[in-house]
Amino acid sequence: MNKNDSKNTSKTIWEKVDALTDDQIDTSDIPPLTDKFFTRAKWRKPAKPVTVTVHLDPEVLAWFKAQGDQYEQKINAALRIYAEAHRIYNE
Prior knowledge:
Layout: H1 14-19, H2 35-40, H3 58-66, H4 71-90
């Protein structure tokens, strides 16, 4: 990881995004949820988190902390995405 990576910021103007009403958001590319979807859907309750000690590069931790509150949950979400993306190769 480059030490400048944690200094990159989004160019999105989040205030404009937050100000959008539901009618202004284009959802035309999202298919409707049908009865078939809900028939196949499964309720997944997250497991109780466990506390661990993990060694992180200082700049990685700084980047997550710079994303705001709940940085630990964001680290968990990033690890979950990585694990799920690679699970197919380990089964």
